[in-house]
Design brief:
Number of strands: 13
Structural class: mainly beta
Oligomer: single chain
Low-confidence stretches: none
Shape: globular
Strand content: 35-45%
Mean pLDDT: 96
Largest sheet: 6 strands, antiparallel
Bound molecules: D-sorbitol-6-phosphate, zinc ion
Strand order of the largest sheet: 1-2-3-11-6-9
Radius of gyration: 16 Å
Length: about 190
């Protein structure tokens, strides 16, 4: 098996979210249409600037069953209206595939939503914190701080991403700043 892997160790930076040799994907505000609850605040922010919200660097060697993929994310601080910057969020194409997130720097949360029951959970994600995302669970990362939130994620190579299913019905809960406190509310 070793011969299939060109490289087995990578340098990373906890503060910039950089991971050597990975494939970098950037997500700007215009790519998150429909994610934020306050549509007029979204339109206004976008008219002002198509800001960079987050970057993900992925390493996906995918040589076969049992393999792992992994990646590093950096989600910048900010808000649309009173809703914190967030990632698009997804389910895994292979629904049973779980994932581990490890917080590296900054202050954030993971919003988890059971696809079948709609049950939501909010878990803190920051330095020295690990979050386990079970299978069949839509997951989204949210920056509740004033610094960039960086994290490392590892998932089965066959997990895949399904953005469509959750985009269509949307997460049931939103996380907003209410008097300086992150507060989970129904989307309505
Ligand atoms: C991949 C893993 C993360 C996300 C990243 C960005 O399974 O969950 O690396 O890709 O947090 O979020 P999203 O929803 O835009 O892929
Ligand atoms: Zn995932």
């Amino acid at each position: 098996m070793l011969e299939h892997f060109k490289k087995l160790s990578y340098a990373y930076n906890s503060y910039t979210g950089e991971l050597d040799n990975g494939l970098v994907v950037e997500r700007r505000l215009s790519q998150l249409k429909g994610c934020f609850a306050n549509e007029s605040a979204y339109d206004q922010a976008l008219a002002n600037e198509d800001s960079l919200l987050y970057k993900v660097t992925a390493i996906e060697p995918a040589h076969g069953e049992g393999d792992l993929h992994y990646g590093m994310g950096i989600l910048y601080p900010g808000k649309i209206g009173n809703e914190y910057y967030l990632t698009k969020g997804h389910l895994h194409r292979t629904r049973q595939a779980a994932e581990i997130y490890i917080g590296l720097s900054g202050d954030g949360c993971m919003l988890l939503e059971d696809e079948q029951t709609g049950e939501s959970r909010l878990e803190y994600l920051g330095k020295n914190k690990i979050v386990y995302v079970p299978g069949y669970t839509a997951h989204r990362t949210i920056n509740i701080g004033t610094e960039p939130l960086t994290y490392f994620g590892v998932y089965p190579a066959n997990a895949g991403h399904d953005y469509g299913a959750i985009a269509q019905r949307n997460f049931l809960k939103i996380l907003v700043d209410e008097n300086g406190q992150p507060t989970l509310k129904d989307r309505r």
